[in-house]
């Protein structure tokens, strides 16, 4: 399988190079909807549900924004398509878009899909993408129904977050900080999204693992917060602090948006900000700002770069540099930021992200032995590569 992938990658690289000179955008298409004007053209397929995600700019929009930033950094023309496979008309529009744009590759963000919708999407992708020899990478969520990446032809890879790790790292850090003030048994309250939400369930597993390892802390209760809604979280938190568990030491939140609701509730109680150890997940702009203000103590994340990671892999593959020697399923290595991380603001600096992305590809950094996909790498390299000139790396080819 690996040899066949290398052949496919090499053939694609040659064919794309030959086709690039004559390929142009369909007449009448507006450039402002796209990113980059390079020789590679990639379609970014985004679920309509992700655009309605109540987290909004706190996560989903940032995830897509950084995907576009990575594409721009590599001169990839990235066209975003919002899909809804429950709508036949929208499905036909996507089919026409694939036929007319003749993409060199496709990235897909599965999000909130029911089994029946997922089945429709899988059939569509097999027929119109994989059977037409278009490389496909999925990111941020698993893509069931079309087989496993690396085994299904042209489904070349996936990038998914390690949600268990994020829950574990956050809990471990909050426990560590709470130990500075209290040596006895720590009491933890959890607030999570719907207990049917797969990501939240996996994050809770990480929380429980950290508590078990600590050996001197307990989870008093885990409260569900529908759709990660900050207002709902605030209502639940007020009940917790005033009535149920006023003696809690730690509030573990499965997202930063839930942590935001907790902070708002605390401002209205006698307990006050700073007396509870609070943390969330997502590396949201609000969380980083709130850490600097002392309102929360930690945020775990790094999966906001999942789309950027997928862009890097697809870019190298299209340049004939197959990544399968390192695997085809890349699980995001999460990290936790605290008030001590002075460079935390670099997380959302897209200009610096644009500068470092080329250094994370094998195409422009041929001396790189393995992909540096650890989440902190995106921050640490930001500072190191500020003055880098991409053209110097292009000249190495």
Strand order of the largest sheet: 1-3-2-4-5-6-12
Shape: globular
Mean residue pLDDT = 85
Main sheet, how many strands, which sense, barrel?
7 strands, mixed
Number of strands: 13
Proportion of residues in extended strands? 15-25%
What is the CA-based Rg, rounded? 22 Å
Low-confidence stretches: 14-33, 383-397
Helix residue percentage: 40-55%
Succession of helices and strands: HEEHHEHEHEEHEHEHEHEHEHEEHHH
Measured distance between first and last alpha carbons: 27 Å
Class based on secondary structure composition and strand pairing:
alpha/beta
Task: Explain what you see.
The chain is of the alpha/beta class. It is 42% helix and 18% strand. It is built from 14 helices and 13 strands. Helix 6 (163-178) runs parallel beside helix 7 (198-214) and helix 12 crosses helix 13.
Structural topology:
Blueprint: H1 2-20, E1 34-35, E2 40-47, H2 48-51, H3 60-73, E3 76-83, H4 88-101, E4 105-109, H5 115-128, E5 136-139, E6 155-161, H6 163-178, E7 186-192, H7 198-214, E8 217-224, H8 230-244, E9 250-253, H9 256-266, E10 277-281, H10 285-292, E11 298-301, H11 306-318, E12 329-332, E13 335-338, H12 350-356, H13 375-384, H14 390-394
Parallel strand pairs: 2-3, 2-4, 4-5, 5-6, 6-12, 7-8, 7-9, 9-10, 10-11
Antiparallel strand pairs: 1-3, 11-13
Helix pairs in contact: 3-11, 3-12, 6-7, 8-9, 12-13
């Amino acid at each position: 399988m690996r040899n066949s992938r290398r052949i496919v990658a090499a053939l694609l690289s040659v064919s794309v190079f030959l086709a690039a000179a004559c390929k142009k955008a369909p007449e009448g298409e507006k450039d402002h909807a796209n990113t980059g004007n390079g020789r590679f053209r990639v379609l970014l397929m985004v679920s309509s549900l992700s655009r309605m995600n109540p987290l909004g700019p706190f996560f989903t929009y940032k995830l897509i924004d950084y995907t576009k930033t990575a594409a721009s950094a590599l001169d990839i023309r990235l066209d975003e398509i919002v899909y809804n496979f429950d709508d036949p008309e929208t499905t036909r529009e996507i089919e026409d878009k694939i036929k007319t744009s003749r993409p060199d590759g496709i990235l897909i963000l599965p999000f909130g899909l029911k089994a029946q919708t997922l089945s429709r999407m899988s059939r569509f992708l097999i027929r119109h993408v994989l059977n037409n020899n278009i490389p496909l990478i999925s990111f941020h969520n698993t893509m069931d129904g079309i087989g496993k990446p690396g085994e299904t032809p042209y489904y070349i890879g996936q990038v998914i977050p390690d949600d268990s790790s994020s829950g574990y790292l956050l809990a471990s850090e909050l426990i560590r900080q709470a130990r500075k003030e209290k040596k006895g048994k720590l009491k933890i309250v959890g607030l999570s999204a719907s207990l049917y939400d797969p990501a939240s369930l996996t994050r809770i597993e990480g929380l429980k693992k950290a508590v078990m390892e600590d050996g001197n802390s307990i989870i008093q209760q885990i409260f569900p917060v529908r759709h990660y809604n900050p207002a709902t979280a605030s209502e639940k938190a007020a009940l917790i602090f005033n009535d149920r568990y006023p003696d809690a030491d730690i509030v573990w939140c499965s997202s930063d948006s839930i942590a935001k609701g907790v902070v708002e509730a605390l401002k209205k109680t006698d307990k006050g900000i700073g007396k509870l150890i609070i943390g969330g997940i997502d590396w949201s702009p609000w969380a980083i700002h709130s850490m600097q203000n002392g309102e929360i103590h930690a945020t775990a994340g790094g999966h906001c770069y999942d789309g950027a990671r997928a862009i890097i892999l697809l870019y190298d593959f299209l340049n004939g540099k197959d990544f399968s020697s390192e695997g085809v399923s890349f699980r995001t290595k999460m990290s936790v930021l605290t008030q001590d991380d002075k460079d935390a603001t670099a997380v959302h600096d897209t200009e610096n992200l644009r500068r470092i992305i080329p250094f994370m590809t094998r195409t422009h950094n041929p001396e790189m032995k393995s992909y540096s996909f650890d989440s902190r790498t995106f921050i640490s390299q930001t500072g190191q590569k500020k003055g880098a000139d991409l053209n110097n790396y292009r000249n190495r080819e």
